[in-house]
Every structure is written in structure tokens, then in C-alpha cells.
Amino acid sequence: MEGHVAKNNESTFPSFVDLDDFLNKHNSNFIWLLVATILSCGWIIYLTYYNSRNIGLILTLIINRLYKDGYIHIGSFSFSVLSGKVMFRDVYYINQDMSIRIQDGFLIFRWWKMYNPKQKQHDPKAETRLYLTVNGFEFHVYNRTDLYAQLQETFGLEPTLITPKKEEEKGREDRHKSLESVNIKAESPDPTSSWRSLIPVIKVNISTGRLAFGNHYLPQTLCVNFEDAFLTYATKPPSSHLDQYMHIVKGSLENVRVMLVPSPRYLGMQNDEPPRLMGEGFVVMQSNDVDIYYYQDEPGKLA
């Protein structure tokens, strides 16, 4: 009986010698080809559906371990060195004041373009090297804790929102000091010392965007919806010699609608009802095409 059981165990679990004899008796090349085909199909399926998600999960864990002032999530992430393309999906950033959500998008860095270190930093007509496309963009501002903490400090109230940090307290003390000995450090004239000589122009395309301002303590939330946005970012020399440079954002928006939408989870009284609602809320303004021109100087550095 024991010998019969041992014989069954040997037949159930073949040894390497038995496996080698089996492959020699049969067509071993065909079997290895079948195994290689199955493994290749499994590897292709993994690269197609799961590799980018695993990379996104790893990046999410690493970034949130290093960054403590908010939460960053990356659903999937993949890149191609040959085409200079970075693709991402289900990306959002959340902190105590705002949230940024992106459904999917990709970034193309044209590394094969010839780099000219003598190129002007502030040339809005320079060739685009960085290109960004985003689908399903949402930007929501629901709090301003820094401003509230500053008001509490101004009126001598006990801070309840943010615990003051030593660096912030030191910064406030420095701001209250006299500015007689402050020197304005202008930007270095060497074009190779700035990243703008490498990326003078950035083009951004957004498909289906939404900007929201409000929270559940307000009866209405201001929403700005648009279908397509074509933006171009560049820099040019500042209007004042005390500044470093000037930011320039030009572009156009299509099918823009500004609305006051009832805030979800609002439990207060509605004192002022909107005159009429269209879809989600009361339409304040709408337009088929909106042109954007935004200019802002970058302040000089204090030394």
C-alpha cells in the first residue's frame, strides 16, 4: 500500500529527469515556442494595461511620502524617450485651500530641436519646445486659510486654522524690518543661466475645463466652464528695471459660460434667489469666443 502511494506521488510530481525525457521524446522546440508565446502575450498585456498604472501607484506613494502639504494622486503614468512624450491619467492634487483634477493628458518635450544658448530668453516668437494637452481639467478654490490666519493675527485672535511655523514667523519679522538696506538683485544677463533660454515658449491646449470658486458654506458657487482653450506662455523684458521679467499668457477660449451654481451640502437659508436658472444654475455671462491677455511682472530678488 505504501509503495502504491509513493508511486502515485512520483507520477504526480515529475522530476527534472522525467521532464527532460518527455521533452526529448516529443517536439521540444514546439513546446518552448508555445511557452515563449504565452509569456510574450502575458508581457504585452501587462505593458498595455497594467504597467502605467503600477508606475502611477509607485509615483503616488513616493511623492506623498516626500510632500506633506497636500495629497497628489497619479492614476497612470507612461513615457517614451524616443518621442519625448509623457502620458498621464487621473491626476489630482488636493490641499486645504484648492484642488486640481486632470482626467488625462500628455506632454511633449521636443528634445531633438537644436538648442541655441545665445537665443533670447524673452522671445515670444521663438519655436515651441514644450507642448501640453489636457482633457477634463478642473480647478476648484474652496478655502483661503493663509488669508484667514493673517486676519486672525491682525486682530489679535487665537490662531485656529494654521499652526504658525518658525520660518513663517521669521518671515513676518523680516517683512516688518526697515527696507533701507535692501538691494534689488536683477536677473542675470547671461541667457544660459535661465531655463527660459531652453523653453522660451510653452503651448497648452485644454479640452473641457472648469473653474470653481466656493464651498458648502456659501449658497452659490461661481463656475466658469469652457470647451476648448488654446494658451501660449512666454516671457519678455519687464516694464521696470527692478523686476526680473514679465509673464505673458495669450490665448482663446471657446463656448465660455460663467454661472452661479447652488452649492451642494449647503444647509443655510437662501435669502436671494436667482431670477432664473438655465441648466446647472444662473448664467451670468456666456460667449462663443473669449480672448485672454494676461501680463504679470516677476518681482526682483531681495539680497
Short description:
The chain has 303 residues and is of the alpha+beta class. Helices cover 26% and strands 37% of the residues.
Report the portion of residues in β strands. Answer: 35-45%
Biggest sheet features:
8 strands, mixed
Report the end-to-end length measured between terminal Cα atoms. Answer: 93 Å
Helix content: 25-40%
* Chain-averaged pLDDT: 80
- Spatial strand order of the main sheet: 1-2-3-4-6-7-8-9
How do the helices and strands follow one another from N- to C-terminus? HHHHEEEEHHEEEEEE
Topology:
Layout (H helix, E strand, L loop, with lengths): L1 H11 L3 H10 L2 H22 L1 H16 L4 E10 L4 E10 L3 E12 L20 E12 L3 H10 L11 H11 L7 E2 L16 E12 L6 E17 L8 E18 L19 E17 L2 E2 L1
Parallel strand pairs: 4-6
Antiparallel strand pairs: 1-2, 2-3, 3-4, 5-10, 6-7, 7-8, 8-9
Keywords: Membrane, Transmembrane, Transmembrane helix
Protein name: KIAA1109
Organism: Sparus aurata (Gilthead sea bream)
Please explain how this structure is put together.
- The structure is a single chain.
- With about 300 residues, the protein is α+β, with helices and mostly antiparallel strands.
- The protein has a domain of about 180 residues.
- The protein is built from 6 helices and 10 strands.
- The strands form 2 sheets. The chain has an 8-stranded mixed beta sheet.
- The protein is extended.
- Keywords: Membrane, Transmembrane, Transmembrane helix.
- It comes from Sparus aurata (Gilthead sea bream).
